[in-house]
Amino acid sequence: MTLTIGTLCAEPGQKTRGSLPADLGATTVDVPVILVNGSRPGPRVVITGGVHGGEFIPVDVTTRLAGLLEPDEIAGQLVICPVSNPPAVYGGRLNISPLDGVNINRVFPGDKDGGPTDRMAAWLFENLIDGADAYIDLHSGGIDQHLLDFVGYRLTGDDELDAKNRALAHAVGYELVIFGTSADGGNSHAAANRQGIPAVLVETGQLGDRDPATARRLLDALYRILHHLGAIEASEHIKQPTVQPRDWIWTGDVASQVTGLWYPDAVTGDEVTEGQVIGRIIDPVDGAERKITASATGKIIYNMNGLSVRPGTELAAIAAPHD
User: Fold this and answer.
1) Residues 136-165: what's their mean pLDDT?
2) DSSP string of 8-45?
3) Contacts of 78 (CB under 8 A, 6+ apart)
4) Is the CB of residue 188 less than 8 Å from the CB of residue 201?
5) Dmax over Cα atoms in the chain, in whole Å?
6) Helices and strands in the chain: count of H runs, count of E runs
7) Taking a C-beta distance cutoff of 8 angstroms, is the pair 10, 16 a contact?
8) Residue 26's pLDDT is what?
9) Start-end of H helices in 186-239
10) How high is the pLDDT of residue 289?
């Protein structure tokens, strides 16, 4: 079947590159999209990078993947979007858009009549994600975030969809596979699940990493995912994982309640217990100290490395093995 998104079109056995306009209300942005329409039937797989600014590895690797894969290697249809949120990628360096200060991965599937970031999320769902057989959203630790590589998926209450989510997450080949207990909220993969689409979030690298070895790690993971989905055949490109995936469960997160300067005492990879002091926020005006405690027991999967924080800034996320 012909693969058509907006004005871009790829016939079977064809790769098409281009950009599509997204109307965000006050401005219009160009969203790069690559269509790889396979030479034989198979699933429609959507891969997005650049949902957040300052997360360079996903933008790099989706661009590389689009160059490497050719239609005669593909069964089905592959939709790749390296820069899914241009305002944040090109105009900002944090999780929020400079247009309105909103984190797009808290408002999916968006609102086409809302603010700029809600419109961006709605555009991605309407044009790229709706109708997919699988959705992979790529992220990394931004320039202010220490992070362990992990895969995130959700439980939905639909046994068949949950099994697909878990199998997709395990196919990535990372040791940490962390699930949430519902498909509620504005995360991309949760919103896709609510539309019946198997989806995962893949986090690779930290601190705005753009090291080639980190990029290779994620590229290897994508080949494993595509092979798992039946989109590509086994080849020398598909490297077996060196670790055994293990299910973990999110147990808690910690957010700043105030504006100030953040000094962590516990960092990514540390084991903490509920109530333990994991850092301090100092008021730069009077030097007053506010102790920050862990909201749960488990391992810190990611933590804030940046100095300046404000109310709502994520300081740490904690998970524990689910045995």
Assistant:
1) 97
2) EEE-TTEEEEEEEEEE-SS-EEEEEEEEEE-SEEEEEE
3) 35, 36, 37, 38, 44, 45, 47, 69, 226, 231
4) yes
5) 67
6) 6, 19
7) yes
8) 87
9) 188-194, 212-228
10) 97
| Over residues 275-302, mean pLDDT | 97
Question: Which one-letter amino acid corresponds to residue 10?
Answer: A
Residue found by looking up tokens 């202010």 in the block? 144
Does pLDDT of 33 surpass 80? yes
Mean pLDDT (whole number) for 211-230: 97
| 109: preceding bond cis by omega (within 30 degrees) | yes
156 half-sphere exposure, CB direction, 13 A CA radius: 22
Report the C-alpha gap between 227 and 314 in whole angstroms. Answer: 35
As to burial, measured by CB atoms within 10 angstroms (0-12 exposed, 13-18 middle, 19+ buried), residue 75 is middle
User: What percent of the chain has pLDDT above 70?
Assistant: 100
Is the pLDDT assigned to residue 92 strictly greater than 80? no
155 C-beta neighbours (distance < 10 Å), count: 17
Summarised one tens digit per residue, pLDDT across range 159-191 is 999 999 999 999 999 999 999 999 999 999 999
Q: How far apart are CA 180 and CA 199, in angstroms?
A: 13
